[in-house]
Amino acid sequence: MTSLPLIPIAPDDPTGSPARRATMPPRHLADLDLPGRQAVVTGLGESAFRARQVSTHYFGRLVRDPARMTDLPAGARDRIAGELLPNLLTPVREVATDDGATRKALWRLHDGSLVESVLMGYPDRVTVCISSQAGCGMACPFCATGQAGLTRNLSTAEIVDQAVYLAGVAASGAIAGSPSRLSHVVFMGMGEPLANYSRVVAAVRRLTAPAPEGLGLSQRHVTVSTVGLVPAMRRLADEGLSVTLALSLHAPDDELRDELVPVNQRWKVAEVLDAAWHYAERTGRRVSIEYAMIRDVNDQPWRADLLGRLLAGRLTHVNLIPLNPTPGSRWDASPKPVEREFVRRLRAAGVSTTVRDTRGREIDGACGQLAAATVTR
Question: How far is the C-alpha of 105 from the C-alpha of 92, rounded, in Å?
Fold first, then answer.
């Protein structure tokens, strides 16, 4: 493990806990489409093309510091920065592992809230995992973020700025053996993305719009996860997007899922899967079923068989996740022989199945762990 530069937390707040009431940040250019940015700039008495200039810096060149936007006159730069480029993310801690291929960042937001992002380099792609909320209100007991509770939703720009920052890290060549361009974004960090629906959808559109409107990623390379908020899943199917929907199922039966994913007490397994199949039908996109493998809890052979029956013949793929236990938790990862038998049974049922690459265990890699470790220091 390599520790990257640490920006100390304010001395009057040694734990890093929010010192002020959670509030939304000031407006940022990433909250707006290009016409919206042009309206702000012309309202400042500047020419509309200045909005395209500053947008090209931010999305096209991954420049987030107004002082480096030297093709803007100093006066115009200051006025535009004051309205469209507030600082949204302050690094608190950054750590790296896997020879630098996995890098996790903990950010402090303007109100003191803490969120996390992870950059993962592979030989053929670079992926960033971003947060959509500070904390999470879904209360899944095996998840560090769920244990922390919800602080607030993130703004569209706070979501996007995580990806832009880490795209800049990739572009700097910091991840040896990986491409220098960010290609994939997964909404699998802190929070339930579909509980912050409008801002997450706006962030997806910003991330996938061509520069200078946005970051220019392919919609097919964006994954939005959910624990199963059925109305929002159905609404997402009608957005005209081509993103992958990832459903965090974690149990095929209502009795256990009521415990592991408390929102199941509102929308049962059958209803959640119906919404997933509706999404697949409307978009033509394969739904990813996320399933954390928890020792002696949800890893029994009969549950693998039940899951296989529920998913057989559907446009879906199962992503088994070896649990990354949180400190002091009673939950632990399934043994490898149990995991392999689970995979065998799903594949025997004709269900495409893989086991997620486990990264970041040395750097508090599970969602919420780095924030929790910082707060409890």
Answer: 8
